[in-house]
Every structure is written in structure tokens, then in C-alpha cells.
Amino acid sequence: MGTILIVDDTLFMRTLLKNILFSGGHTIAGEAANGEEAVAKYKELKPDLVTMDVVMPKVNGIEALKAIKQLDPAARVVMCTAVGQEQMVKLAIKTGAKGYIVKPFQAPKVLEEIKNVLAS
Amino acid sequence: MKEIPVKTEHEGKWIVVKAAVGDDRIVFPAPVNKEILFKSIFDLDERKSILIVSAKGNPETIIKIASVEKVLVILKRLFLANCNAYRLMAYFMSPAIRGGVMIKNAQWEKGSIVVVKTGIWFVSAVKQVCVPLTDVAAIELTKRDVQGKQTDVVRIDHVESGEVVSSMVLCPLSTLQVLANFLKDTTKGIDMKGTELDALDQQVAMLVYSGMDSHAIENMLSIPHKQLDGIYDRIIKLGIAEVMTIRREVQLTTKGVRYISDATKTQTNQN
What we know:
The complex is a heterodimer of chains A (120) and B (271). Chain A is of the alpha/beta class and 120 residues long. In chain A, 48% of the residues lie in helices and 22% in strands. In chain A, 45% of the residues are buried. Chain B is an alpha+beta fold and 271 residues long. Chain B is 29% helix and 40% strand. In chain B, strands 8, 9, 10, 11, 12, 13, 14 and 15 form an eight-stranded antiparallel sheet that branches. Chain B has a seven-stranded antiparallel sheet with strand order 4-3-2-1-7-6-5, covered by helices on one side. In chain B, a hairpin with a 5-residue loop joins strand 3 and strand 4. The longest helix of chain B has 17 residues. Chain B starts with a strand and ends with a helix. At the A-B interface, helix 1, helix 4, strand 5 and helix 5 of A face strand 9, strand 13, strand 15 and helix 3 of B.
């Protein structure tokens, strides 16, 4: 179990992830609606893990991932992508993402990926 | 012909027979007395460890075969290589994504795609995976990064034990288009306009897919039970969802209230 920062520009997806993660016994450290906010919240909250949407306004998920990795090279970030964004996933993994989940989510699979990344 | 011991269903009972397997046929001896030419097989389905073979004839032959995995693998390979089906050589990755999570270490395998009456088989030297057409959720000609290049692939999504599993097929673009069109035509019964659901209905459908129960959905979307019930009715009517359980909400009758009041008194007195 860990403290998790949820980053997604849609309230619906944040709420969905929050429910899934909460049901898995995780603590929600905070939420951010764009990459810029994500980096600021990461500095402030130091969560065990970040779930990061890729496509977001202002600063996108990849840029936010880079910034978080610069702040903390050991940061655990799981990217949330839509089907068909495999190129983004590849880039994110190169940039240091520890895992990825594809929308639409299924709770058991999301929790399994989070568990694996937290254990890594 | 080689003899292989298999179990087969005969007159409602499973019996053990030694089936004779040749280059072009399989023969089941008495009391089954059936001979099936591989080229007459138009459908092959696998449920748990049972192969269901359908072959043309008058009447059509349907035979169920159960055996150890090793034997079933040999039979499937023979049937799929020689049956009457839409077949193409391709690279495939199955499964590539399961329940929204990409399969780690998923690799492209060289093999063939065999489309029979009720399913799509992904066949390689080491794998025989069947996707029943009734479980196919989406077929899309899309692009995927293959060895650093954006490459055309067909993505086939199917539902397996309640979760969406995606498989990818890679072959020349012209063949992919033929495959995508063929599969779309075969599964056109599931096609929808995309305008049947409003935004709230779509959110409910997504939450159902995510595994949320009705209470969680009501809380998340801040909607009353009656409204959710109406949305459920709509998505069930559209064939998007099906009823899993009907949960009853009850309230105590006077008799019930009296019963638990008495029980509480008894417990209090005992303490």
C-alpha cells in the first residue's frame, strides 16, 4: 500500500482512479489536473507513486514525468494512456516511467500494476 | 495412420476411443463410427480442454474431443492447417493488452490467422489461441510502433472473463484491410453508431467496466438510484450490458422490528 498522487485533466477519470486505488487500500496523497500542478504537488507531497495521464493541457504527462524525474530520479510514475498511444508509452518508459495502464481501466488490473510498481 | 487415445462424447456419454489420424482425416472407430476429412471442417471451438469440431456433410458432423494438452495441441494444429477457413500468414501478438494493462514481454509471433465460423485462431509454432467471434468487442485498422516504425496493424479486442483483451495482427497493408473488412463484416451485429448514449450514460458504462457496483456509481456520479436504474435499463436494452444480480433492498415489518428489539433486550440482559 502506498500514497499516490493522481494526475489527470478530467475530474471523472481522477475520481474513478481514486475509487479504484482507495478500494485497493492505497492512500490518495493528492490530485492534479495538469502537468505543471503535478510537479508542484510532487514536490509538496512526496508520494510513493504517481499515476500520470499523458495528454493534458499546459504541461503534458511526458514533460511532467521528465520534471519529476529531475527532482527525484527514484520517483515511481505509472503512465495512463489511451489505446493507440503506444509511441507515447515507449517515450515515457525511456524517460523513466515505471509502468503504464491503458484506458478504459479495469480495477483489478490497475491495482496489480500499481502493486508491481510499488514493489519494484 | 497414427492412433491417438481421446475421449469423445457419444450418445450423451464420454467414452475413450483410439482415433486414427492421417494426413487428411481423422477416423473415430466403433461405436462412434465417424470419419472427418480435415478440409470438411468449417468450425473449431475450444472450451476449457474440449475441442468442438464441426464438419460439412449430410448431416453436419459435430464431434467433441477431450484429451491431454499435448494431444489437443497436435489435433488443433492439424485441423487449423487443413480446415476450410479464411487463412493468412501474419505476425501477431496475442494477448497484447489485458484489462487496460499492456502485457509485459509480449512479442510478435510468426504464424497464421485462421478465421473459422465462430472464431479467430492465432496459430504459431508454440501457440493456438482462439477468440470467439461472439466475444469480439472491436476491430480496428490502426498504427503501432514496431521496431521504431509506425506500422499498420489490425487490433482485435475481445472480452475474456469480463475484461478486454487486445490482440494485434501484422501483415501487408492490403491484407490487413481485407482482414479488417472481413472481420468487421463477420461481427457487424455488434456495431453501434456511437451516439446511442449521452455523456452520463457513457460514464456509467465506463464505471461498470471498471468494476464499480451500483452504490459506488451512485456515489461517484452523485445520482439517485432511480436515475441509475434508468441508465441501466437503457444500456441493457442496447445490449451493452447484462443483468448480473438483482439486489433486494428490504425494510423490517412490525414483526421484524419486534424481533430485533427483543433480541437486543436479550443480548443486553445477558451482558
